[in-house]
Specification:
Elements (H helix, E strand, L loop, with lengths): L2 H26 L5 H25 L5 H19 L6 H27 L1
């Protein structure tokens, strides 16, 4: 599997995880509570981070790699922090996906530096 395909796989999984968060909010919460809004907002954050990775992957500007790396490491950090209150497989998947995206970002940056 090429690095580019691996990157698209990671960001697709992240997007699906965020979409699941968004779509499951009404099923998980009977009414709009603070917890429901946080759950929904977390889903939006995951989707937006995934979309940012898609934009960064298609952008020719090498400076975008720093933004992508920061986004991916922050998202991985949030998933790591979530482990203390929600030790579930979805937290492991989310953290692993964003760490994988961070690794892909570094690999792409290295490829570009060697090529250019």
């Amino acid at each position: 599997m090429t690095a580019r395909r691996l990157n698209w796989t990671f960001l697709s999984v992240a997007g699906l995880l965020g979409a699941a968060h968004i779509s499951l909010t009404p099923l998980a919460y009977a009414s709009w509570t603070l917890d429901a809004l946080w759950f929904l907002g977390s889903g939006f954050a995951i989707v937006i981070a995934s979309a940012a990775n898609a934009v960064g992957l298609t952008s020719p500007d090498p400076r975008n790699a720093w933004a992508m790396l920061a986004i991916n490491l922050m998202m991985a950090g949030f998933f790591a922090a979530a482990w203390s209150v929600l030790p579930g497989p979805q937290v492991i998947v989310g953290g692993a996906v964003f760490l994988g995206l961070a690794g892909c970002t570094l690999a792409r940056r290295s490829e570009r530096a060697l090529a250019g």
